[in-house]
Design brief:
Number of domains: 2
Order of helices and strands: HHEEHEEH
Distance between the termini: 128 Å
Structural class: alpha+beta
CATH architecture of the largest domain: 2-Layer Sandwich
Mean pLDDT: 84
Number of strands: 4
Helix content: 55-70%
Low-confidence stretches: none
Length: 194
């Protein structure tokens, strides 16, 4: 059987609109709840993705910090090696200096005019010399030539006096020569000239 309601709209019972309103309200709650649930799921997935990226960056940061520490250790080792090389280079340059000092002393010596009797070189580069010369002029000329050497810092005459040797009147001398490494210009000039 079919029922037809022929009453005008305002006369119809309100029960059916109330059901419709409750249905719409329920549907709205379901839609809002669904939107909230979907938003929560989306935000949770974004938070999880950001946490994963953060953990990956932290792991990368730890790896980089370990690499930085390794590089710093290598830099410290390299610095220690460079300082050792500098020390060895300095020792090697100083090691040959006594030979160069004596070479400078002997190469400038006029063989027929001056003779050494004794000399003593200490570790500070101070050389004590005693010998004889034909005359004062020969000795003075030799001292002036010594002062021009790149290795000689100073020449101090301690004593000169006349001495008779096998019938010859010679000049006995005692003097001190302070040697030192030549200035850097000396080495640069020698490097330029080969």
């Amino acid at each position: 059987m079919i029922r037809i309601n022929l009453l005008p709209l305002e006369k119809r019972p309100r029960l059916s609109t109330l059901r419709l309103d409750l249905g719409v309200l329920g549907l709205a709650f379901v839609l809002v709840g669904g939107i909230i649930l979907l938003s929560h799921l989306w935000i949770s997935s974004e938070v999880n993705e950001l946490e994963r990226v953060h953990e990956a960056r932290e792991a990368e940061n730890r790896a980089l910090m370990a690499e930085v520490a390794r590089v710093r250790r290598m830099e410290n080792e390299l610095q220690a090696i460079e300082s050792r090389i500098e020390i060895i280079t300095e020792i090697r340059s100083i090691q040959t200096l006594p030979v160069r000092y004596i070479d400078a002393l002997i190469s400038l010596l006029p063989e027929e005019r001056i003779w050494f009797e004794t000399f003593h070189l200490d570790r500070n580069g101070v050389l004590q010399l005693r010998g004889v010369a034909m005359d004062n002029q020969s000795f003075a000329a030799y001292v002036e030539i010594l002062r021009t050497s790149a290795f000689v810092r100073s020449v101090v005459t301690e004593r000169t006096l006349r001495r008779e040797v096998q019938g010859l009147s010679l000049v006995e001398f005692h003097f001190r020569v302070v040697f030192g490494p030549p200035p850097m210009e000396y080495f640069l000039e020698r490097a330029e000239h080969g």
